[in-house]
Amino acid sequence: MSAAVLIAAVMMITSAGSLYLENSQALAQEAPMPSEEKTISVTGTATTSVEPDLLVITFGVETQEITAKQALDANSDTMTGIIDAIKLTEITEDEVSTSRFNIYPVYEGYEDPITQRWKQDLTGYKVTNTITVETSKLDLAADIIDGAVTAGANRVDNVSFTLSPEKHLQLKDELIEQAIMNAKTKAENALAPLDYSITGVKAISLSEFGMIPPPMPMFNMAFDESMERSFTSSSTPVFSSDQDVSTTANVVFLIGSN
Length: 258
What we know:
2 domains, Alpha-Beta Plaits, single chain, 4-stranded antiparallel β-sheet, Translation Initiation Factor IF3, alpha+beta, elongated, 36% helix
């Protein structure tokens, strides 16, 4: 090997080594240093008792006839009478909506005495029409139920007192602020004996707004004539009560020594 070739080879090796060293230094400079920040994670809570401002009642009519048309007609006539009765309690059409409407065939099963096979015969059609009343007139609950059942409603699926969307949003904003302040107070109390204090906030995680309703009258049945007479013989007692509403907020605080 000539001296010129040998010198060139040495220069290439030296250049490669220099390049590798420069790349290693660059990577070392770009690599993030381990985080030295200190944090504390605290969950704050906020709870309040609030009066509901929305009444929701769901009820309906089930009818069964031999033909689908007969079942529909009978159901429609009864439902029209129910809605007319509800309007007499000062409920408007805007406060009434259809929540479910079903029509389906009804079969009767039996075992064929000759073939001993299970068979089904079509015996008629059943129509279920369910409506929901949503109103801020909470004191009309008993009148609405009594009027609907008297007019022919044979299903009362739900009676509940809850919050309107507007009140829900307002209360949620207020409770979030209180929950975060509660988390801050907890963190400060925990850090005081350690001679640390809050220097910033790293993350906040909010929970969903929660409301646990108190026991309310709940109906999910079909009324026969004797039950209907008993149910409507006197005004139905329905009461609303305050509800506990709560939310939580998890806050990760940055901390430092005093």
